[in-house]
Amino acid sequence: MSNPLTILKICRLFANLHEGQIAHLLNVLGAKIVQFKRDATIAIEGDKCDRLGIVLEGKIDLQNILPSGKVVTLIQFGPGEVFGEALIFSKQTEYPVTIISATACSIMFIEKKEVIFLLTHHPVLLENFLGLLSDKLFFMNKKVKVLALETIRQKICDFILKEF
Q: How would you write the pLDDT of the chain (164 residues) with one tens digit per residue?
């Protein structure tokens, strides 16, 4: 595995921090790095989410498994991307999706209490965390708007309007 600091420097959560600051935070945090083989289950829909995950290497798929057995991949995350950030502070703390490793991957997990420590003691991280949540909320809002369009014609028109 490559140096985690290289990836964390591009992670939205650690934006505007230099490598030395990130290294210091990692020493204080006690974050755990877990390796997963390809197609390993990281979390199953309904599992409790009590930690934040950061993909350091490889890719993960967030999937819905339908009652028919069909698997729908909602999104794929790669190095530097964060998951679980909304769930650890939500009343609904269970994963709404199943998370599978699409490739062999390394994930850094930070426990909720450590995230709270980071956010209360480091204003830059608090701002980054809120920006991360805001960006994901904005992304989901755009997805809902596209899903609300009923016909292919409406979806094509929406796409064309956004391109200009």
A: 568 888 999 999 999 898 889 988 888 888 899 999 999 999 999 999 999 999 999 999 999 888 888 888 988 999 999 999 989 999 988 999 999 999 999 999 999 999 999 999 899 999 999 999 998 888 777 777 777 778 888 778 777 877 77
In this structure, the strands spanning 98-101 and 41-43 are: antiparallel
HEC sequence for the chain: CCCHHHHHCCCHHHCCCCHHHHHHHHHHHCCEEEEECCCCEEECCCCECCEEEEEEECCEEEEEECCCCCEEEEEEECCCCEECCCHHHCCCCECCCEEEECCCEEEEEEEHHHHHHHHHHCHHHHHHHHHHHHHHHHHHHHHHHHHHCCCHHHHHHHHHHHHC
**pTM (2 decimals)?**
0.85
Spatial contact of 64 and 79, defined as CB atoms under 8 Å apart: no
